[in-house]
């Protein structure tokens, strides 16, 4: 008989709805206003400090849900943002500048849901609140670095070609490399050899016939700038992932700007510590033949530079860089055989070959690891922002015991927290060029809460209006459509919660409201088709069967075109546009399922396979 379904089909649909309902449940548990307290320079917080903080909150009359020690940090949960803000002031007074106190939102999902991987939907910056950064990439530093690399490359190339030269040095002010050779023949040979290796080099005569100035073509300069910007974006994304922020936004703005939005982070301190850090490493040999005493008096040898270790010990290092942090592919903190903190480093193939070649003839010599950071100084640049100052320190120097390859380690680090912090930065990647935060904004959770309330209100009123209309116009069949509509909303929330990359934004809520109307459209097409079949004199069972079958083609055509538009919006859009596209695409798929499959099962359950003379439609 027509319009009968096997039991397994009902079980599959009910199972899907129950699964979506379970994964949608975490959204009923709002996040708690929280306070993250961590030690500076990657240190850890002890149990004594946690107890001191909790006692301080109690004495100040602040009610807490919990004050827990988690991964070397204190996480304090509160009932309201007022308690959260008051607690930050108390914690700052208690701990001083040795600890970072950051406002955050902590999930309150029950453990039984967390154990099965259920978590609430990721909310965008406009709903959850958070911080917004606008960063500027220091393109001059990127070009200067390229010139210094050229100096090392030219020296190697000239030695390989057996061309004699006096000096090869970078003129950073003019963006050139100056070659000083020993004869006119060497000048011609050097130009020919270097042009053969790189066609984008531009050669101009220098102050005399034995000097050549080498610069980079405009095409190469543009490539360097583009590479620095794109690589920095990739590295910042990696660093954001290391922080653990859910659904951040990292995108390009203009020729040298990067926009970073971190939902849920209410204080910029922790984010700035990781994002703004321009940590990188350089590995150099210690110049053991140079006169360190003379260098301290200002007479530094031409092929060496003076550095200082963290404990203030001076070291004379060769200018030649054996390896930079660009070739680091992995870094992890651990302990050495003496239970001292260390960082184990893995290099890519090119970096491994470079280090192997550099240490082949250097066994027995000392190699230093130079930690480099760029921090805002006191001088103000032409753009109105502080000029970045390069800060360098030697974090360790050790004797090379054997030829090094793709795996080696750095020791001499002061604390496990610092080792972990250094490993995090190196693992995320060394920035190609320094960045500077030139604008920062904090969007409070109160604004996000208001947006959520308005969005939920819009969805509720839209649902109520549709439910009332369907019941009045289609009677019992309208109730079936309403049940499918509720199931559709549960599916959307459940799927959005299950997909790791899905984020709900304010435009995304608009997409859900639009989906509610589109889901009803499919039911309207089906019900009107059933009415037409009944009007043509078909039996009730034939009308139901043909109504669903013949309406499906129209429903599929209209929804597929809308789905294609949603995919295009997701592909070319950014930020809020992507949020709208995600909810629209998911809503289209769930509405087709509930309108075509769900309602048909219900209609067949109530009226299918029976001798019914009329339908309440």
**CATH architecture of the largest domain, please?**
Up-down Bundle
Task: Supply the CATH class of the largest domain.
Answer: Mainly Alpha
Give the spatial strand order of the biggest sheet: 14-15-13-18-19
Strand content: 25-35%
Cα radius of gyration in angstroms: 33 Å
Query: In CATH terms, what is the fold-level topology of the largest domain?
Result: Multidrug efflux transporter AcrB transmembrane fold
Give the overall average pLDDT. Answer: 82
Helical content stands at 40-55%
Low-confidence residue ranges = none
Dominant shape: elongated
What is the domain total for the residues?
A: 4
Structure description:
Strand 16 and strand 17 (341-347) form a beta hairpin. The chain is built from 16 helices and 22 strands. It is of the alpha+beta class and 617 residues long. It has 4 domains: 7-26 and 444-606, Multidrug efflux transporter AcrB transmembrane domain (Multidrug efflux transporter AcrB transmembrane fold, Up-down Bundle); 32-106, Alpha-Beta Plaits (2-Layer Sandwich); 140-220, Hypothetical Protein, Haloacid Dehalogenase-like Hydrolase, Chain: A, domain 2 (2-Layer Sandwich), CATH 3.30.1240; 278-441, Gyrase A, domain 2. The model has no long low-confidence stretch (mean pLDDT 82). The longest helix is centred in the last third of the chain and has 54 residues, at 445-498. Helix 14 (506-535) runs antiparallel to helix 15.
């Amino acid at each position: 008989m027509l319009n009968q379904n096997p039991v397994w089909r009902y079980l599959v649909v009910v199972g899907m709805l129950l699964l979506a309902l379970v994964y949608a449940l975490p959204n009923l548990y709002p996040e708690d206003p929280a306070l993250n307290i961590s030690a500076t320079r990657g240190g850890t917080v002890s149990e004594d400090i946690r107890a001191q903080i909790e006692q301080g909150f109690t004495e100040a009359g602040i009610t807490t849900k919990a004050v827990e020690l988690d991964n070397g940090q204190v996480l304090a949960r509160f009932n309201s943002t007022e308690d959260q803000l008051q607690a930050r002031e108390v914690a700052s007074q208690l701990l001083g500048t040795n600890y970072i106190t950051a406002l955050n939102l902590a999930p309150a999902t029950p453990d039984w849901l967390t154990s099965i991987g259920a978590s609430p939907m990721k909310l965008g910056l406009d709903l959850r609140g958070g911080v917004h950064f606008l960063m500027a990439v220091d393109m001059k530093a990127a070009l200067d670095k390229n010139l210094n690399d050229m100096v090392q490359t030219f020296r190697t190339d000239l030695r390989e070609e057996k061309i004699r030269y006096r000096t090869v040095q970078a003129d950073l002010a003019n963006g050139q490399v100056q070659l000083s050779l020993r004869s006119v023949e060497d000048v011609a040979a050097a130009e020919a050899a270097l042009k053969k290796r790189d066609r984008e080099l531009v050669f101009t005569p220098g102050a005399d016939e034995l000097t050549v100035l080498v610069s980079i073509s405009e095409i190469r300069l543009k490539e360097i700038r583009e590479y620095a910007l794109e690589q920095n974006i990739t590295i910042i994304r990696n660093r954001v992932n290391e922080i653990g922020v859910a659904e951040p936004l990292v995108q390009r703005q203009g020729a040298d700007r990067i926009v970073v939005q971190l939902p849920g982070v209410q204080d910029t301190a922790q984010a700035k510590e990781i994002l703004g850090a321009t940590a990188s490493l350089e590995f150099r040999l210690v110049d053991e033949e140079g006169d360190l005493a003379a260098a301290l008096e200002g007479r530094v040898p031409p092929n060496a530079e003076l550095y200082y270790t963290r404990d203030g010990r001076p070291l004379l290092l060769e200018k030649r860089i054996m390896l930079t942090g660009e070739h680091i592919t992995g870094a992890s903190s651990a302990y050495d055989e003496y239970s001292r903190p260390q960082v184990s480093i893995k290099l890519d193939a090119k970096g491994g070959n470079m280090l192997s070649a550099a240490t082949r003839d250097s066994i027995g010599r000392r190699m230093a690891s130079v930690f480099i950071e760029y921090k805002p100084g006191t001088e103000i640049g032409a753009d109105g922002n502080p000029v970045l100052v390069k800060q360098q320190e030697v974090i360790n120097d050790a004797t090379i015991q054997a030829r090094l390859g793709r795996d080696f380690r750095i020791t001499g680090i002061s604390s496990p927290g610092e080792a972990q912090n250094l490993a995090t930065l190196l693992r995320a990647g060394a920035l190609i060029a320094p960045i500077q935060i030139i604008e920062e904004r904090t969007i409070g959770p109160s604004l996000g809460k208001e947006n959520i309330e308005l969005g939920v209100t819009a969805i509720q009123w839209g649902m109520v209006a549709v439910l009332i209309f369907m019941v009045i116009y289609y009677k019992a069949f309208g109730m079936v459509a309403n049940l499918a509509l509720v199931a559709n909303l549960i599916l959307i929330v459940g799927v959005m919660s299950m997909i790791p990359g899905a984020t709900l934004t304010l435009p995304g809520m608009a997409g859900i409201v639009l989906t509610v109307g589109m889901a009803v459209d499919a039911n309207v097409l089906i019900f009107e088709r059933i009415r037409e079949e009944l009007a043509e004199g078909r039996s009730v069972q034939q009308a139901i069967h043909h109504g669903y079958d013949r309406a499906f083609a129209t429903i599929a055509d209209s929804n597929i075109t809308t789905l294609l538009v949603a995919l295009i919006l997701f592909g070319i859009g950014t930020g809020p546009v992507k949020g709208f596209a995600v909810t629209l695409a998911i809503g289209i798929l769930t509405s087709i399922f509930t309108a075509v499959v769900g309602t048909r099962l219900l209609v067949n359950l109530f009226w299918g396979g029976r001798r019914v003379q009329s339908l309440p439609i």
